[in-house]
Write a structure and sequence with these properties.
The protein is α+β, with helices and mostly antiparallel strands and 266 residues long. 16% of the residues lie in helices and 26% in strands.
Length: 266
């Protein structure tokens, strides 16, 4: 007989029914949750399990992380999604992703304390230029200020929304792992807090390595602490250099990633 986790993943991935079964209990999904949920991390425990298994809790200093929402990311140019440790090619993840922030199916919606508040989406590479030699980690790929969903069901964050609901702080730069550097872990985090803080900024395109001035693998944690922000959602994927894709196709000076050679990182 298939395990509960296997049945959960199978039913969520194929989208055969608008419910999930957790330990024998059927949990109805909203239409938004039916569109995005994939079963690998539909509980807080699952989120923490996958982050811990892949050493992201320790390497990103997320020791006290308490997920409040599901964070889903779909890269529109390819249709691929971040799915808690799946592998995407660098080209798959070029162009900023569509973001959905949803409640956990077994929870009574997104907490009212964060509905409609200001949030921040970040994407960071823990393994620049490689996991064995993370001297440039973390490498900042994206920071965007967003308005969190105003309903308990959650919803999509629209890039071209009216002023005030989406603002790019550090321009999105897709993955560009160097040749022979192995798989890189790209962590997406949703953070909230710092209400009334109008001065939140991020690394410039020329300071993506180590988030400008952070110690090794402290970029997001230090930036969050400096701005009074707390992580409330997470997701991640792996990406690795592909021989058929030239590095210069992905790296470019406009995004601060440099041309191929010793100067690029992640």
């Amino acid at each position: 007989m298939a395990s509960t986790s296997t049945r959960l993943a199978r039913s969520a991935h194929t989208m055969l029914a608008p419910t999930l079964r957790l330990r024998g209990a059927a949990i109805p999904l909203s239409p938004a949750q039916q569109r995005f949920v994939r079963g690998v991390a539909t509980r807080k425990e699952d989120v923490l399990k996958y982050l811990t298994k892949n050493e992201l809790i320790s390497d990103a200093s997320l020791d006290n992380f308490d997920p409040k929402v599901q964070l889903n990311a779909r890269f529109l140019s390819s249709g691929e999604e971040a799915a808690f440790g799946n592998t995407l090619t660098p080209v798959d993840a070029q162009g900023k992703p569509s973001i959905e922030i949803l409640s956990f199916p077994q929870e009574d919606g997104i907490p009212s304390s964060i509905q409609g508040k200001t949030g921040y989406i970040v994407m960071t590479d823990l393994d620049a230029p490689s996991r064995d030699n993370p001297e440039w980690s973390e490498f900042c790929h994206w920071i965007a200020q967003v308005q969190l969903p105003t309903t308990k069901e959650g919803g999509e964050i629209v890039h071209n929304a009216k002023e005030g609901t989406f603002k790019e702080i550090t321009e999105y730069a897709g993955p560009a792992p160097p040749e022979k550097s192995g798989p890189h872990r790209y962590l997406l985090l949703l953070l909230q807090g710092g209400e009334g803080n109008k001065g939140v900024s991020g690394p410039s395109k020329d300071d993506r390595k180590k988030w400008g001035d952070s110690e090794q693998r402290t970029g997001v944690a230090k930036w969050a602490k400096d701005n009074g922000l707390t992580p409330i959602g997470a997701n991640f994927f792996f990406s690795e250099y592909k021989k058929e894709q030239t590095v210069d196709d992905i790296h470019d000076d406009k995004r601060g990633l440099g041309k191929s050679g010793a100067g690029y990182g992640g």
